[in-house]
Design goal:
- It is a single chain.
- With 276 residues, this protein is of the alpha/beta class.
- It is built from 10 helices and 11 strands.
- Helix 3 (123-133) packs across helix 4.
- The longest helix is centred in the C-terminal third of the chain and has 14 residues, at 200-213.
- The two termini are 37 Å apart.
Length: 276
């Protein structure tokens, strides 16, 4: 059952093409406001996400980073008190338009969560789950192998595909979850603090994987680790909490510019550790 209440819609929002005639935006939000019950969590968020880039979302706890991330694939619909106004546009179409199937949105916009959450199934069945649900008719063995290779896990598990995904290490479990998300061939991958529960070695492997994957798809990652954002992202969005208590987007820029010459004093205060 879909519980999300949608207050306003602006479907088929136009995206300006770049000079070569191709759109330089794959996802964007316009006047996005979000509530849990009567509590305003996000206020008037306008942001454009470019294709085949890594976009990092940083900011203090409670500023709505994860809520904003979940707006991109309608995951917030699972919360009964959720309410949204404004537009979330993916490839020129508002994904909250009532004609849009949320299941199809989630196929095209995959998600990896903070804590690895493999299914209590074999490694093979974890990766094959999505294609099976979506009626994939091709060679499943090939699809599983390809996804595990893309997630840089194949060489470690190729002889143990019948082994439970729960028996893997934490870092391997997270890469298995990435392989599971990649198996349905999404255009966008959302990552909600994917390294926060991992050790430094596993974190390095995930970061290396993100760098490789950005050649193939768009990645948006929420992270509390500013060094991580600086290492792996092309652009960074800085959120903070307004006086109203809602999360607002303060600044969005190329990562190097945001960290070296921030345009807003609130951004500078956060990245220099003066608050947050």
């Amino acid at each position: 059952m879909i519980n999300l209440r949608i207050d306003t819609r602006a479907s088929d929002v136009a995206v300006s093409p770049s000079e070569n005639g191709q759109s330089d935006v794959i996802l964007m939000t316009r006047n996005l406001n979000f509530w849990y019950g009567n509590t305003l969590v996000l206020e008037n968020i306008d942001c454009d996400i470019g294709p085949r880039e890594v976009t990092a979302i940083i900011g203090p706890s409670g500023c709505g980073k994860s809520t904003y991330l979940r707006c991109f694939n309608r995951m917030n619909e699972l919360i009964p008190t959720a309410r949204i106004a404004g537009s979330v546009v993916f490839r020129n179409r508002d994904i909250y338009d009532r004609s849009v199937d949320p299941v199809e949105v989630r196929r095209q916009v995959g998600m990896v969560f903070q804590k690895p959450n493999p299914f209590p199934k074999s490694i093979y069945d974890n990766v094959a789950y999505g294609p099976r649900v979506n009626g994939y008719k091709g060679d499943m063995d090939e699809a599983v192998e390809t996804s595990l290779k893309r997630a840089a896990l194949w060489d470690e598990v190729k002889d143990d595909l019948k082994k439970s995904g729960l028996a893997l290490s934490g870092g391997q479990q997270q890469r298995l979850c990435i392989a599971r998300a990649l198996a349905v061939q999404p255009d966008v991958l959302l990552m909600d603090e994917p390294c926060s529960a991992l050790d430094p070695i596993a974190t390095t492997r995930i970061e290396d994987l993100i760098r490789e994957l950005r050649e193939q798809l768009t990645i948006i990652i929420v992270t509390h680790n500013m060094q991580q954002a600086a290492r792996i992202s092309d652009r960074t969005a800085f959120f903070t909490v307004a006086e109203s208590g809602a999360g607002i987007l303060v600044e969005f820029n190329e990562t190097q510019k945001l960290f070296t010459t921030p345009a807003d004093e609130r951004t500078e205060a956060y990245i220099t550790g003066r608050f947050g």
